[in-house]
Design goal:
Blueprint (H helix, E strand, L loop, with lengths): L9 E2 L9 E2 L12 H27 E2 L3 H28 L8 H7 L10 E2 H29 L1 H22 L10
Parallel strand pairs: 3-4
Antiparallel strand pairs: 1-2
Helix pairs in contact: 1-2, 1-3, 1-4, 2-5, 4-5
């Protein structure tokens, strides 16, 4: 039987904020992210979610030469983008932030341009995905210094993601490159 002292006390959340908060939430001690840090990580989160979604769109609709290799490479990017979004969201929760990965939030706040509808040639897909990888990294680099100033651990999370996404951008873009002229 739950006594009065054990019952959670509820506090009304702001309109549209979702579930009510309880006295037991965030009872653990430790570092709590500022709004600035939470907002920065939220920006990264929505771009990673959008990268995952646009990667799936590309994966399903790519056609043309070297289809199979690009199709499989997109799977790798998609899997990592999804995993990275989970890492960022869980980091936010560890710092008592509230990640928002709802589709309307992602659509309204991502920095990634809309992905084209329908079939897309492999060469165009290479350029489109490279742009989206670079845009996602751009968001992380833009917020990095503020994140690092407040929480070097979160900055380390961004470092690992940036490293992998920049590697993907290089590898994907190489599909459309030609060798540099020899001197």
């Amino acid at each position: 039987m739950t006594t009065t002292a054990e019952r959670p006390t509820t506090t009304s959340a702001p309109a549209g904020a979702g579930a009510k908060l309880t006295r037991r939430q965030n009872a653990e001690k430790g570092f709590t992210a500022s709004k600035k840090l939470t907002d920065a990580l939220q920006e990264v989160l929505v771009d990673l979610i959008e990268l995952h979604l646009q990667g799936k769109q590309a994966h399903w609709n790519v056609v043309g030469k070297n289809f199979r290799d690009l199709h499989l490479q997109l799977d790798e990017i998609i899997d990592d983008a999804r995993e990275f979004s989970d890492v960022v969201a869980e980091r936010m929760r560890a710092l008592h932030g509230l990640p928002d990965g709802r589709s309307d939030t992602v659509a309204a706040t991502t920095t990634l341009p809309e992905y084209p509808h329908g079939e897309v040639l492999t060469s165009d897909t290479v350029d489109l995905i490279t742009q989206r990888l670079e845009a996602t990294v751009g968001t992380m680099r833009r917020v990095h210094d503020d994140v690092d100033e407040e929480d070097p651990t979160s900055a380390d999370v961004l470092h690992a993601i940036i490293e992998k996404l920049e590697q993907y951008a290089w590898m994907v873009s190489a599909e459309n490159r030609t060798p540099a002229k020899k001197r």
